Fold:
Amino acid sequence: MQWWCSASGKPWTWEPQFYPGVWLLAAILAVTFHRLSQRGRAMGESRLAFWGGWTAVGLVWQVLDWPLGPLAAGYLASAHAVQFVVLALLAPPLLLLAARRPLAAGLPARGAARGVVQFVTQPLIAGVLFNLVAIATHVPVVVDTLMPTQVGAFVIDVAWLVGGLILWWPIVVPEPVRPWFSVPVRMLYLFLSTLVHTGIAMVMLVRDFPMYGIYELAPPWSAWSPLEDQHLAGGVMELAGAVVIFGIITVMFFRWSGGSSGEVPPSAPPRD
Structure:
């Protein structure tokens, strides 16, 4: 039994596999989110945000566990792309939306912890960090070196989730306060900060040969070739990523144009 999904080089079977590390991470995420979301509900967060956060917890678990986890680790680049979209672009904003009030209230007024959070979540720093993670985890030599090992695959998966939380924090969580970071600036920030992953997707789409040896040399799993799978991966990153990013930008725009800044109001009774 493996503790985390990694490329095995063995022919694929539909025999279920169990990954204790994935279940442990999912449990830690669920417990942490439960505590924060309960405080968020008490502070006035909506039920919709609450269930959106739990949906994100479930999605993180599903994309890391069997069958998508091992498929992404050593068989299909397209499955790996689905993991990226969920872990970096979809789950983080849903988690933060449900926990933004307690996260903002729990941030110390001063001290080292606040200094670290304030620095890391500066929009320029957050955008750069997210793009560095996206680039580093899609470089062929990095992917081919890390994915065959459980620790390496774990590092990539967790880096995407942490990078996504950093990317979305300045947009969702109202602390540290930045008066200049208005809704239009947030929309521009989100658009510019996700251009690099769009570029990576375009490279996957236009390359005439497989980029990753781990998927090119994987035991055959499907009817499509490694190159077709890579093109599909690029399409997933491009189209699914665009749906998430531009969908959220659209919501932000209409809320802003309708007179709602999207800021977290003072604590209020829970809303249904």
Observations:
- Residues 265-272 have pLDDT under 50 and may be disordered.
- The chain has twelve helices and no strands.
